[in-house]
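Q: Please design a sequence for this.
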């Protein structure tokens, strides 16, 4: 039995009123080992064989997408590659005389997936829902974005750097919201906030 909660939207409706929408509460995550074990119980294939087929499929999908194709798997969905600029390269402006980006500056930054309606329908038919008794955590609305930026500047005036976790504790934002807002501050030239490092070692500093 899956559970859901009615969560308040961060955006008002046309009348300016807050609205609620259903959100699934995740129970956990199933990996390929468990998926192959379950599938093996209802087929003549051993779990190791199923895993081998999936791994081979992944490699061939990657080859096809790398060659410029989208990959459609009936009943599952369509996979397409998403391109982006490598770290350290700025976007083209399209203005006359501006430096153009060549292939060395571009890489595959992700894979877009659009689910097949058959998969959506099967999931819907198999889904039995009950309303969760627990409430989703929401980011604090105690401060406005401008006030949070001021708090970040004040913090960095006495500390050499600030992590996402420290910004979340400072402002009351949950992790995902803190990440998005810090990225926005770092991209905004007049914010006074810059960033250094990569991945889990990324930190935010005062711009020089």
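A: Design:
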């Amino acid at each position: 039995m899956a559970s859901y909660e009615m969560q308040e939207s961060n955006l008002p409706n046309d009348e300016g009123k807050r609205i609620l929408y259903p959100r699934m509460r995740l129970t956990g995550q199933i990996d390929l080992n468990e998926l192959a074990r379950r599938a093996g119980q209802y087929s003549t294939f051993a779990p190791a064989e199923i895993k081998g087929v999936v791994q081979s499929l992944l490699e061939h999908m990657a080859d096809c997408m790398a060659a410029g194709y989208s990959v459609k798997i009936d009943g599952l969905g369509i996979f397409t590659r998403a391109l982006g600029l490598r770290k350290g390269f700025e976007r083209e402006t399209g203005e006359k005389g501006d430096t153009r980006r060549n292939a060395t500056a571009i890489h595959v930054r992700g894979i877009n997936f659009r689910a097949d309606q058959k998969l959506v329908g099967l999931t819907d038919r198999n889904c039995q829902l009950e309303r969760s008794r627990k409430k989703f955590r929401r980011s604090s609305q105690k401060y406005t974005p401008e006030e949070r930026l001021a708090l970040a500047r004040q913090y960095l005036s006495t500390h050499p750097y600030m992590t996402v976790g420290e910004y979340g504790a400072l402002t009351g934002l949950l992790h995902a919201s803190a990440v998005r807002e810090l990225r926005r501050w770092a991209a905004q030239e007049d914010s006074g906030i810059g960033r250094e490092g990569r991945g889990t070692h990324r930190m935010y500093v005062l711009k020089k």
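Q: Thanks. Anything notable?
A: The two ends are 54 Å apart (CA to CA). The first helix runs from residue 32 to 40.
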